[in-house]
Amino acid sequence: MWYALTHHWNVARVLRVFLGVMIIVQGTVNHDYGVLAMGGFFTLFGLFTTGCCGMSGCNTETTQLRQNRIEDITFEEVENKK
Predict the structure, then answer these.
(1) Taking 90 as the threshold, does the pLDDT of residue 39 lie above it?
(2) Is the pTM of the predicted complex or chain greater than 0.90?
């Protein structure tokens, strides 16, 4: 867990943490617990590099070989009636 907190920082991760902290501050000032929870959500995603595509969350399996097939395609010409 310490490794996830201290390595691989990039602009998007810093922006997520910054926006999450700003949302937490706004939720605290306005006493709005929904906004506070949303800020915590964004901050945790930024800190632990999780989320939609963090830590290879969106990777697909690469074990399948792609087969390149060239098939004959036939086209039919369509004319406008005038």
Answers:
(1) yes
(2) no
